[in-house]
Specification:
0% strand; Flotillin_fam; 203 residues; protease binding; Flotillin-2; rod-shaped; mainly alpha; 88% helix
Length: 203
């Protein structure tokens, strides 16, 4: 059976077109596959980059952030400790000063009470023994008075008495006459009155 040339050419053209269409489809599928491969590769690359970023962040945190935070915490704790220590020292010092003040106030109060009690007892003694107690004070004061009178004489190398016995007697009498005022000035006791109250004494 023979085909004419026109039918052969048409059939050949259709075959050629079908081939090219099929080839185009195959190329499109290949391109789609290539695109999918590119997408997958890009995703993998992104995942790898993300993991690298996370790794570097962890490394930075371990080598920089955490030590810095630890140092900051350490400095903060030291500062807090020093502040607490300063506050406690100040409290202790304030308490020490308060206790010293209280102790001193108590000591002053006790001394005052003791002095008041001593004066009260002394007043009772004076009241009970009257002139005898006053005379005792005078007698206890006489050594001090004698020392005061003799003090200028201790500085004198030589004493020359001019005149007779009458002049010496007058000087001694004058000196003795000055004793009651001197005793009165030193002790507040009028020796003349006290001696006047004692039987047999003469001022």
């Amino acid at each position: 059976m023979l085909l004419d040339e026109g039918g052969i050419g048409e059939h050949k053209a259709e075959s050629q077109l079908a081939y090219e269409l099929q080839a185009a489809k195959i190329r499109q599928r290949i391109r789609n596959e290539e695109i999918q491969i590119d997408i997958v590769e890009r995703r993998k690359q992104i995942e790898i980059e993300t993991q690298e970023i996370n790794r570097k962040d962890c490394e930075l945190s371990a080598t920089v952030k955490l030590p810095a935070e630890a140092e900051s915490y350490r400095v903060q704790m030291i500062a807090e400790g020093k502040r607490t220590q300063t506050v406690e020292v100040a409290k202790a010092e304030a308490e020490r000063i308060r206790k010293i003040g209280a102790a001193e106030a108590h000591a002053i109060e006790m001394v005052g009470k003791a002095e008041a009690e001593r004066m009260r007892m002394k007043a009772n003694v004076y009241k009970q023994y009257g002139d005898a107690a006053i005379m005792n004070i005078v007698l206890e004061s006489l050594p001090k008075i004698a020392a005061e009178v003799a003090a200028p004489l201790a500085k004198t190398e030589e004493i020359v008495l001019i005149g007779g016995n009458d002049s010496t007697t007058a000087d001694v009498a004058r000196l003795v006459g000055q004793l009651p005022p001197a005793i009165n000035a030193l002790t507040g006791v009028d020796l003349s009155k006290v001696l006047g109250k004692i039987p047999g004494a003469k001022a």
